[in-house]
Design goal:
Helix 7 (152-161) packs across helix 11 (212-222), helix 8 (168-181) crosses helix 9 and helix 12 (225-239) runs parallel beside helix 13 (253-268). Helix content is 46%, strand content 14%. The protein is an alpha/beta fold. It has 14 helices and seven strands. The protein has two domains: 10-112 and 225-303, Vaccinia Virus protein VP39 (Rossmann fold, 3-Layer(aba) Sandwich), CATH 3.40.50.150; 137-222, DNA polymerase, domain 1. The chain has a seven-stranded mixed β-sheet, sandwiched between helices. The longest helix is centred in the C-terminal third of the chain and has 16 residues, at 253-268. It has helices spanning 10-17, 34-46, 61-70, 88-94, 111-115, 143-149, 152-161, 168-181, 187-197, 200-205, 212-222, 225-239, 253-268, 284-289, and strands at residues 24-27, 53-58, 78-82, 100-106, 240-250, 272-274, 297-303.
């Protein structure tokens, strides 16, 4: 399947990174390289002698491979790193980079990951596919491990806290009951369980698909998304030069809450300036072109010292 991903809020990202022609920037969620390509093109237009450098990090090797092809013409302006952004300090240490001029975190799951059946992220397909959901296929924990090995109490907590699912208890119990008969291996297996554990009124009256919250919760657990975000935030601020900016695009209320609270905390410590109180959201024009950007929220801070 061809790699495809439309990055969200590209124009705003470039504007608030305040790109310098000789700056060093980290795209900590490189994806298909959309944001990075725009930064490099704009820098070259502004200054043909631009010496800008971008460190592109992604835990998905397929994203890295696609971005390498897309950004090939920029040569050594881009350093590709196959890793999780939670290891930002060690990545920059290995590259002998002390401070950077800007860092971008686009926390959304790529369209490619959602649409490729082999990745096992989505139920929105006519195929019954193997549950997986690993962004980094080197890791051991997969969606199958979560639904087949986690205790009922742990499943309930994940479904409720990460998925904000009101029927978390009933679905967790149904998962445990079903796996006692046979292992839960595919998206359709899981869909059938969720369908049986929720009332018709709930399934047909809510906005969006009735299984979305459970699939999202499992994905976030498999990839430790909130923990990784919490770990990278202090590293990112510490690695910024004075005047450097951290731009974060989140797609979920839990992510945005973590970012908002962290920004407030470090503002109170006089480490950063918050550039705008309320998060920016994509324009209606962008949402029409890229419906998946609808839930995007951008927050930005500038390092004071």
């Amino acid at each position: 399947m061809k790699f495809k991903h439309i990055p969200a809020m590209v124009k705003e990202s470039i504007e608030f990174l305040a790109v310098k022609p000789d700056g060093i920037y980290v795209d900590a969620t490189l994806g298909g390289g959309g944001h990075a390509a725009t930064v490099l093109r704009k820098s070259k237009i502004q200054n043909p002698k631009s010496k800008i450098k971008i460190v592109g990090i992604d835990q998905d090797i397929e994203a890295i491979n696609f971005a390498k092809k897309r950004l090939k013409k920029f040569g050594d302006r881009v350093i590709f790193v196959h890793n999780n952004f939670r290891d930002l300090d060690s990545i920059l240490n290995q590259l002998k980079i002390k401070k950077v001029d800007g860092i971008l975190l686009d926390l959304g799951v790529s369209s490619y990951q959602l649409d490729d059946p082999s990745r096992g992220f989505s139920f929105k397909t006519d195929k019954d596919i193997k549950l997986d959901m690993r962004m980094d296929r080197r890791q051991k924990l997969s969606a199958q491990d979560v639904v087949n090995d986690y205790s009922e109490e742990k499943l309930k907590r994940i479904f409720f806290e990460l998925g904000e699912e009101p029927y978390a208890r009933q679905i967790a119990r149904a998962v445990v009951n079903r796996r006692q008969e046979k292992p839960i291996k595919t998206t359709n297996n899981l869909l059938d369980i969720i369908r049986g554990a929720t009332p018709p009124k709930y399934r047909f009256s809510r906005h969006g698909h009735y299984a979305s919250k459970i699939f999202r919760a499992i994905r976030m657990e498999v990839n430790q998304e909130l923990k990784s975000l919490q770990e990278v935030l202090p590293q990112a601020v510490d690695r910024l030069k004075a005047g450097g900016r951290l731009v974060i695009i989140s797609f979920h209320s839990l992510e945005d809450r973590i970012v908002k609270h962290f920004f407030r905390q470090i503002k109170n410590e006089d480490k950063v300036e918050i550039l705008f109180k309320k998060p920016l959201q994509p324009s209606q024009g962008e949402i029409r072109l890229n419906p998946r950007s609808e839930s995007a929220k951008m927050r930005v801070v500038e390092k004071i010292c």
